[in-house]
Amino acid sequence: MSVRVLVVDDEEDIRDALVAELEGVDYETVVLENGENIVNTVLETRPDVIVLDLMMPKVNGNEAISALKDDPVTQRIPVIVASAATRSGILTAVRELGAADFLQKPWRDGELVWRIDQAIGTGAA
Amino acid sequence: MVDATSRFDARPMLVTETIERYRITIIFILVSIAALGLTSIAVERVAERIGEKATLRAGTAIASLEAGIVGTAFSQVTSNIGLTQDRSSLLVTDTIMSVYEAGEIDSTTAILLLTGAGDVDQLLSSSNVRHMSLYIPEFDLIWESGEAVGLPVGDEAVEAIRSGVPISTLRRGLPLGSDRDTVNQKTFDAVDAWMPLSIAAGDSQVLLVHIVLDVSDILAAEISGTQSAITKWTLAVISSLLAVMSVVAFMGEHLMSKKNDRLIFSERLVAKRLDEENRKLQRLDKAKNEFLSSVSHELKTPLAAVLAFTRILKGNKKNNLDDSNLKSLTPIERNGWRLNALIDDLLDLSRIESKRIRLQKEAVNVQGMVEEVARSFEPTLAGRYQTLTLNLDKRVAWIDADRGRMIQVLTNIVSNAVKYSAPGTEIVLTTLTSDHEVKMSVIDHGRGMKVEDIEQLFSLFFRAPEAEQSSTPGTGIGLYISKKIVELHKGEIEVESEYGIGTTVTVTMSRVLGSIVTGEKTQPVYKSGFDSLPGSVQRRNAT
Lengths: 125, 543
Fold this sequence. Notes:
Chain A has about 120 residues and is an alpha/beta fold. Chain A has helices at about 10-25, 40-45, 60-70, 90-95, 110-125; strands spanning about 5-10, 30, 50-55, 80-85, 100-105.
């Protein structure tokens, strides 16, 4: 069974790049432009993992994670925060929010898939 | 802004503050009062001495006059009666009468003599002469009148006879009257004069007249006159001077204190302004950092898209790109990452400069970290046919460090070694564990550096002139940041280089105590996928 990834990013090009890279390894993708309706989308599409941008209009990454953590079903799905923010200690910060991992933009070759696989492994445990 | 003077005038001044503020003036006034008192005492003394001298002069003159009268009277007596120096006969009224009754002198002479003696008595009673006595040579008393003052023949008398001039002394506080035992003894001041007189008798007979002249009134008048004259003027002049000086001191001090107030206020003002400026700078610094973060985010987002799509193109899934197309993608990707590294460097620089860099320390296995750094260079090394040899100490070392930051430092140093070494050369990465520290060295056989360049190596934006000329990419930020990071860890970074031979950069860090693990066997040999090819990471066991 294929891995289904929910990609949430306001930048169309980044969304496309993430989707293209994931489809390159035959992962299914669902996309959202921001954190709005993330819980409903997750409940409808049941992704294995969520790749979530932080800085987004309307509902940002932090708010989206909070919403996900409030729902008993969605709270179990691992979230990988993907951001170009370079604040020191960001990994700790996102972990404290409840994210499983952090993907620094720009990401290295193979890093996206590796982190997703790691997260799913963690999430399934 | 509050006006300096108005603020200080509005504040009530405490007594202690006033004393503090005008202490010099106050001390000066107190000293002046004391000085004035002492001056007044001194002036009184001086006036008394002057008065005494004047009195002595005047008294002596009067005494001379009196002595002259007495001398004259007795000269007349002696010449009139035709007597020579019959001592017993030359005495007062009783003597004259007995001589007369004896028929030695006639009645006219007796009357004349009595008149002379009477004149003397009268003179004594009417003048201030308290005592008068007459001596003939060998200091035999031949006549005396007035009070017994108890001033016998002494040195003065001898001196007067010897020198032939009057010798007079001012004597103060002589007892008055005969009752000398009472407590309330009245006293008087006197001129005690010894006057030699030549008697006009044809020979050089000398009489010595002793006169004790009461000069109490004269002395009192002289002293008070002199005192009032000297004291009045001296004290007036000195008081005026002191008063003027006190005023000057007060004004000086007042001006100084005002100036001081203004200084203190301007200091406060300056401090306040500096504080404001400082806060402004802090706000600006914060804004700058936020701006940099924001810019870096905005730069990295499109860069992420560029790099991701470049990778997808390089993947050539649809097989529609020829080799030339694919080759062109490599510099795009490489420069994209360079741009990314540059953004990171600029952000780090900003954090270091504003001291916002925070280390997330943990126990870091040095050998593991070094291997990870080496592994990350595999693609780069392959492209340059270079070999990275790992020479790791068997003794595993742990350090308390921010792993990410230490990797950044080592990556930077290795990256420099790779950049400045010719293709096909070997770079050696060693660790050396000692009891308390661990050294990580990157040794290359590149072009090396000149002495003057080594000195500036860790300066911000410094790039060796040759690196500039050869267009080796770089910004001169990396080593500066590396040094700062190592220093934040209380470690050391040093460089040895020989021009044309190569460079060794060594990072020394303190080991975490109690973590010494001595492996009996060597660690598993790490082999890269390029082990046997040029451009590889090799592991060599430490000897």
